[in-house]
Structures are given as structure tokens and as C-alpha cells.
């Protein structure tokens, strides 16, 4: 991941329209209330049921409640998410990420590029308990949080990469996923060396993603647009686009970086 796209068309990014008097993007806002794990579990049961997500298992829901607790306690001391209301976290973080397992198939290992505090990688790992998932994040405080989540939730076969992903990252993966980190062409270039031929890149985007798709036509030699799925989070007005590219050709590997490319100490 090189530079973040300042013109990202995603709904996931906080925006501050002219004249807006609330907290500016990047300011730390603490949760006013943190529900206990049991209370969060009960509330998730109701929200999932009301939003056509009652098929989530008890075990998954319990881990989501635990993840919520860890995320909100971390938010008290560091700014990790702009979503603080429980309902927003349940829908716009948990359902938003977990629904992908119902919409498409994944090949593993799966690399989550720019995962932040673990989205979408942690919700997907809660579902795909046995499959290998890698979380890539360049901000150290988030890396430490991800390690704690992995330990406390007892998530196995989950590796954490404490760096940004670029063309020099060559650890082989069969799928890449990213949620509103940068524009499509930049991500496709940055994962060129690690994504295996035939592998897919999954972009979680908003309704205005068409300009990015147009820009990505410059990479038609290496990637083919396989799916452009419009959907809405169940029983909400939150519109989404899932854009999937398949890698059809490898590019020559770049010259080797001076820095070693390592995963965390469990690799």
C-alpha cells in the first residue's frame, strides 16, 4: 500500500462537509457506553435477527461480542473507529464484513490489505475458523491491537503483517481483500507480486466506484474485471459495491528491497 487515495469514492470514509460542527475526521471520540460482553451478545442477537442475519452461529456471535468489547476499550485510549454506537458497529462493521462470506467464494490464503483494527479480516476469520488469513497493517498501535484480538479470541491460522503492502511483498496468497483503503488501480499494482495467477482481489466499495473501475482498465493486461455486484446491507439504506478482479497474468518481479519482508514472530 503506497499512498492513500485522497479521492476515494467509498462510503466507509468519514466526511466532514463544509459547515459541519461535529468532530473532525481523525479526532479522538470516546464511546459514551461500553456494553458488557453478555449484553453485547444479546443485542447482537436482536440486531442480526432484525437484519436478516439470524443464520450467524452462537459461537460466531459470541466472538463478535468479544471483539466489540476489545475494540471499544481500545477506542477509549486510541482513535480506532469513527463508529461508536452499538447498532452502527453491528451493522456497518460486523454485518458489512461478514456478509461477504454469503455473497462470494474465497480461496485461501486470504490477505486483508490495510485492515486497520481488523476489518474485514477479523469478521471473516471468525467465520472461516480453519482457513489461513493474513492481516496487513502499517500502523504499529493497530498491529499490537490485532495481536491482542488474535490471542483473546483464540483465532488460529491468523497471521499479522506489520507493514504496508507494495509490489515488493512476495508472500504467496490466492485472494486479496480491502475495504476503502486506496483506489483500485493502486491496490492492484501493490499486490501484483504476492497474488498468484488466477487469484482474485475483492474491493469493498461504495456506489460511486465507477471512476476507479475506469482507471483500472490500464491494467487489463494483468487483471480481468470478474464481478461488479451492487447490494444493500439487509433492512438498511446502506448501498455497497463488491468489485472483484481476477489476475490473469504475472508481471516481472521488481528488484529486491533492501528491507527484509517478514510477517510477525509466529511465522
> Can you tell me the overall shape?
globular
Please count the beta strands (DSSP E, at least 2 residues each). 7
* Secondary-structure element pattern, one letter each: HHHHEHEHEEHEHEE
Kindly identify the CATH topology of one domain.
Rossmann fold
Largest sheet: 7 strands, mixed
Verbal overview:
With 267 residues, the chain is of the alpha/beta class. Helices cover 31% and strands 18% of the residues. The protein contains eight helices and seven strands, in the order ααααβαβαββαβαββ. The protein has helices at 37-50, 58-75, 86-98, 100-103, 121-127, 140-152, 184-190, 210-215; strands spanning 110-113, 133-136, 158-161, 173-179, 195-205, 223-232, 239-247. Strands 3-2-1-4-5-7-6 form a seven-stranded mixed sheet, with helices on both faces. Strand 1, helix 5 (121-127) and strand 2 (133-136) form a beta-alpha-beta unit. The longest helix is centred in the N-terminal third of the chain and has 18 residues, at 58-75. The radius of gyration is 18 Å and the shape is globular. The relative contact order is 0.15.
Provide the descriptors you would attach to this structure in a database record.
alpha/beta; 31% helix; 8 helices; 7 strands; 267 residues; 18% strand
